[in-house]
Amino acid sequence: MRRHLYQLIGIAAFLVIIGGTAAAQTYTLNFDDQNEAAYPWFNIRIVADSNAASGNFVCLCDSLQEYGMGFGINAAKDFPNQNINCKFNFLFKADTNTQADIVVSIDDTIRNRYWTAYPLVNYVNDTDEWSQVQLDLNFPASYTQGSEIKVYIWNKGKEFMKFDDAQLEIKADAFPSYQPVIGFDADSLINLDYYPQVSDFIPIVEYINADGDTLTNPSVIETQFSASLFFLNPNEWENFESGKKLQIMAETRFKEDMKLLRLAYALPLPEGKITVYRRNQHIDSTNLQSAYYLDREGFSIKSDTFSLYTYHNTNISSLQLDVENRIACFNIDYWRDHPLIHYPLMSDTSDVFEDISYREIHKGETISSEITLYYNIAMDDLPRLMPVWDGYQSAFIFTEHADWTDLRTHRA
């Protein structure tokens, strides 16, 4: 009996990878044509075999070869700043107790960023027939930037194995935005010769009502905006093109009780070159993702006559940027920003939990927020704020976990 014919392998990351948008590149290898064994394949040793699954040739791995058939992808060159999906299928014959592994690794020019091994024995038939492996591998862009992906057979037991009919399909996957669909007229885009107005902001409210229904309805809030405009040079306040700082304060009152999932204000963005300021000093100015979650980082838009910056808004929950539709979403409160799982006290450890990441809102409650935008600031780039010197790789955080215990045990 086949132990596992198919196994889905996913690499965990901040993002959940969803359906692809680009045409897939497909490579097939049945080993009958020596010219097939080129990029992206490696460790290909072709020998004649009358018992091949198809044709008359197979790929051999024996006691002289510690590493068997595999493929490599230069993600930095071929898929810059993109999620990658690989479907890798092949047939093989090996001992039913094989010690070989399928290795998945991601390496940049300095170090290994990811490494894992999946036992080949999980795919072995109990008969003498050819066994099949079907892998579906998802690689997030946060892991693959500037890196090379390799998937190969590690023959650590120096065993005799044969492979046939390999097929690889590679494609770029889209980034999920987790932003609601926002409709607006093209006329609502900000005039390139003027700064944004509070009327340009589109309210978004996602919540769970008293009946347990998840709704999107901005009519359950009332928002009072106030704005302050500061001129960087007070002597140029009459100069239409002078640099300005626009500080927008919002006081949002709720008309009913709810479990708040998202309170946000979306801002349609003008045309111009977008530069994205990410965490850890990273800046994206080319090969932009379709969407970004920026925490409290920021972005800029520049044209020949216009520039708009926003960065490090501390009085919001987070900032999301939809590059494809040119919309900035300023999350005032967003349940994904503060995930919280509650395990109620029970007599056993049945792993029952409640997701209480949402915010409990009572009728009449208000939330205050503040958004700052800079217009026509004369600078090539923004100075960056770093929590630790040289970035996150120099920071170490130690935590202690005492699962399923009370406070006295934790203190002990």
How far apart the termini lie comes to 49 Å
Based on secondary structure, the structural category is: mainly beta
Reported for the largest beta sheet, the result is: 7 strands, mixed
Average of per-residue pLDDT values: 81
Per DSSP, the total helix count is 3
Please sum up the structure shown.
With 412 residues, the chain is mainly beta. The protein has helices spanning 75-78, 141-144, 407-411, and strands at 7-10, 25-29, 41-42, 46-48, 57-61, 67-74, 83-93, 101-107, 112-119, 131-139, 148-154, 161-173, 202-208, 214-216, 221-231, 244-254, 258-268, 273-277, 283-284, 291-293, 298-302, 307-310, 318-322, 327-334, 341-342, 354-355, 359-361, 366-375.
